[in-house]
Amino acid sequence: MKTPLIAAALAAFAVLPVAADEMADAALELCEKVKACSMAQIDKEDLTPEIEAMMKPMLDGMCANMQSRVAVVDTSHPMYDVSLSCMSSMSELTCDQMMNENQVVTPECEEYEAAARKYADQAP
Predict the structure, then answer these.
(1) CB contact at 8 A, 41 and 2
(2) What is the C-alpha to C-alpha distance for residues 65 and 52, in angstroms, rounded to an integer?
(3) Taking a C-beta distance cutoff of 8 angstroms, is the pair 87, 111 a contact?
(4) Buried b (16+ CB within 10 A) or exposed e, 26-56
(5) How far apart are CA 36 and CA 34, in angstroms?
(6) Which pairs count as long-range contacts for 116-119, CB under 8 Å and 24+ apart, including other chains?
(7) What is the pTM of this model?
(8) Residue 21 burial by CB count (10 A; 0-12/13-18/19+): exposed, middle or buried?
(9) What is the DSSP string of 47-100?
(10) Residue 68: what pLDDT?
(11) What is the mean pLDDT of residues 19-26?
């Protein structure tokens, strides 16, 4: 199974912790999309039912891991809007796009990455 979509999804949480309702909804939507695409890829792999049964809890654990990385951030935080835009844009990708490492980065996520680097450089 390819992993670009999982790496990209985790990258959306790497620099900025998130929490406001709109952000939590976007994070949940992205996680559900990643899970659905991952399960679709697993189905294509023609794996045994036992391996598929092991994969589901792992994918559920991925979402729990993503959620454990989030902390409260005020909606006025300078990274809030670009982070929300990135996660929302990733949720709109097709599964084929998510599985293609050349298509998984959206313009909104490129903007997020640039803003995150700038924000990190300004940190004390």
Answers:
(1) yes
(2) 20
(3) no
(4) bbeebbebbbebbeebbeeeeeeeeeeeebe
(5) 5
(6) 116/14, 116/15, 116/16, 116/79, 116/82, 119/15, 119/78, 119/79
(7) 0.72
(8) exposed
(9) --HHHHHHHHHHHHHHHHHHHHT-----TTSTTHHHHHHHHHHHHTS-HHHHH-
(10) 63
(11) 72
Block residue for tokens 């640039």: 114
What pLDDT score does 91 carry?
92
Whether 22 and 122 have beta carbons less than 8 Å apart is answered as no
Read off the pLDDT of each residue in 75-89 and give the average, rounded to a whole number.
Answer: 88
∠ CA 14-59-40 to the nearest 5 degrees? 110
120 contact partners, CB below 8 Å, separation of at least 6: 15
